């Protein structure tokens, strides 16, 4: 007995004959970012949970110390951008596969895009502007390791 598997509905629009094939680059991006994310995520987990005192060492000072280094700032920002764009593009594929109405697809993909853009913007700002000891703040609001 043979069974025919229905063709998936992605892409919603047939690939353009001319110009950039964005669907193909999206497909390649999922694989490339996946490989880099394995390194970034396992490096992150190893440094935070295994090295030194492990998970018990994670507190405000730990994060402040890590983000004092441009290396960890860029590590975390790379993880943020790659994972959010990867997750957003993956969700876009799922919406294209399963959402039937044109308007439903538009609303869902608009919401995904907005969430990704806002989280990338806020996350990047937090990592690069984070200051554990802001000048001019009341001493009782600052963590104990800040010089008075
Ligand atoms: C360990 C790192 C990761 C690897 C190696 C990885 C790998 C992949 C690959 C190869 C695909 C494409 C699958 C396909 O086209 O059939 C994919 C899809 C997807 N990924 Fe990841 N990924 C990783 C992390 C993440 C993270 C952190 C998120 C969430 C932010 C995420 C969310 C998704 C989503 C939503 C899809 C679409 C699933 C689908 O099409 O059914 N992935 N992933």
UniProtKB/TrEMBL annotation:
Record's subcellular location: Membrane
Entry's Gene Ontology cellular component terms: membrane
Heme among keywords: yes
InterPro entries named among the record's database cross-references: SQR/QFR_C/D (IPR034804), SuccDH_FuR_B_TM-su (IPR000701)
Entry keywords, A to Z: Heme, Iron, Membrane, Metal-binding, Transmembrane, Transmembrane helix
This protein's record includes keyword Membrane: yes
Primary location group: membrane
Membrane-crossing segments per the record: 28-51, 71-89, 110-130
Name this protein carries in UniProt: Succinate dehydrogenase
Organism, scientific name: Mycetocola zhujimingii
């Amino acid at each position: 007995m043979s069974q025919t598997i229905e063709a998936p509905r992605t892409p919603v629009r047939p690939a353009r004959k001319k110009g950039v094939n964005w669907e193909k680059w999206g497909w390649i991006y999922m694989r490339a970012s996946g490989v880099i994310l394995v390194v970034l995520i396992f490096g992150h987990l190893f440094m935070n949970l295994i090295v030194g005192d492990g998970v018990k060492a994670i507190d405000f000072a730990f994060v402040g110390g890590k983000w004092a280094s441009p290396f960890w700032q860029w590590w975390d920002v790379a993880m943020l951008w790659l994972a959010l764009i990867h997750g957003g593009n993956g969700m876009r594929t799922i919406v294209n596969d399963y959402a039937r109405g044109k308007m439903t697809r538009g609303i869902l993909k608009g919401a995904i895009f907005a969430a990704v853009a806002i989280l990338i913007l806020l996350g990047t700002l937090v990592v690069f502007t984070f200051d554990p000891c802001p000048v001019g703040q009341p001493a009782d609001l600052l963590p104990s390791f800040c010089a008075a």
